[in-house]
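Why does residue order matter? Because the sequence determines the fold. Keep that principle in mind as you read this record.
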Amino acid sequence: METRFRYAVAVLAGAVAAGVALLLLIPREELAAVVPPEDRPTWREGISLLQEGRAAEAEPKLRQVLSRTDHPTVRYQLARALAAQPKREEEALREIQAAIRLGFREEKTLGRAEFLAGNLFARLGDWPAAERQLKSALAHYGPDAEIEGALRQVERTRALGEKAALVGDDPAQRLRRAQALAYLDRPAEALPILQEILARDPKNASALRTLGFARVRMGASPENLREALNALDRACKLDPGNARGHLFRGGVLDALGRFEEAVVAFSLGIESQPGKGDETIFLARGFARIHQGRFREARDDFAAAFRLSPGHPVAQEWLAKTDRAVRDASYRPMDSEWIPFDDSKASQEQRRKAEERLKGLLGDEPPANP
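Structure:
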């Protein structure tokens, strides 16, 4: 059942738990016809609690309203409250399906409800149903970046699941299986496959890169980072022209606080890429240079990333911040001093942010050439 893994965390937690982008409330003009006057304070309190992220407290309020008002929007909000709580996906799905059966007057409103249903199917690991529901959501809601992103993630994850189910003795096929398992947050299953491949072929650079990826997927602890670095060091020596190996090796070095080495690794990755780099590796080098206090050079990297991907929000944000740091010596673009994973002073929040940035370098699907 590991196919549930962390889809909700990676893509859907914000939309399902907080409902910021697709929040659905009963319009003011409909309120009198939908919620009895005596239940309106309870309704408003339930919605307020839900918006504050207090889903468990919102649930009884919404159930009270639902007991006397079987309206699709009430069921929708109850489904949101259930979806935001651990292990309540099946209950949430029943409520949102009931809401859809009751019917919504507006096509866009139906699309919002189907978006939540598709998310819930994905969290339960039912990828075909999730794909169908999200496609229906797009058809009813119209073009929407969040729904489209969720659909792409479902399609990618479904494809990864198919690769993870591969069996056979062919080394290339087994490597694809190990890589898919690592990206599905099942790295413990990938490790023995990779160790077996490397026992037979210790100079298999693709297997070594995948081993580095798997180690980080196991959690960016200092121990795992050091194991990842050992594998990636060997991979980069064996295959110095692989930009992805340099990119991720640089990310591990940066997380360990070895910033100068990280900058060198990212630079090697840029030089090895056709066209001299993409925005991801320039962003990564920019952050490593910020950690060194080299704001002018970091600004150049963010500018390069922005040129390669005009409108990229991260590049745009950090280009502005480093430009200010260059012009104002008293300004520092980081909220707090960088503390590497190996430092016992690192707070849990600092470690979480660093781990998110490091895993972000992996992307959300394996490369065509691992």
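The two ends are 26 Å apart (CA to CA).
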